[in-house]
Amino acid sequence: MEESLSFLEKITLTFPETKVNIQSYSPLTLAYIGDSIYDLCIRTLVVEKGNRSPNTLHRDASRLVNAAAQSAMADAILSDLTDEEVTVFKRGRNAKSYTTAKNASVSDYRKATGLEALFGYLYLRDETDRLLFLLRIGLERIELYPFK
Predict the structure, then answer these.
(1) HSE (CB half, 13 Å, CA atoms) of 52?
(2) Does domain 26-141 have CATH number 1.10.1520.10?
(3) Residue ranges of domains in the chain
(4) Model-level pTM?
(5) Annotated catalytic residue, options 35, 60, 75, 129
(6) Any catalytic annotation for residue 80?
């Protein structure tokens, strides 16, 4: 029986360029990929609710893919993070970004960036189970999952 590979492993095998040590990535690079992973997870959850119009899908996803919701989720899971994960989160939160969200406070935007950096870090370490666990408990604690 062939052992199943993770999505990240399949990408790495398909595109075998030199792999960089994740520890050397800037927190904003981790947040860049983490933003996409977070968005993909949320969009998947929204689509799994059933076939609906793109407008409805977008509206449902937008409730969770914004700085305020991500900031609330970061607060909700902070006590569950390992020391290493807290360090990654804080590096992302404290990174000097030259952009801000147009509809969010600076504090929410920074915490959201920290959460995205953490999710990017976990994804690049191929720790998908841990990432999904944190996402689930975060959504449950901010009372947005299961979707209402």
Answers:
(1) 15
(2) yes
(3) 26-141
(4) 0.90
(5) 35
(6) no
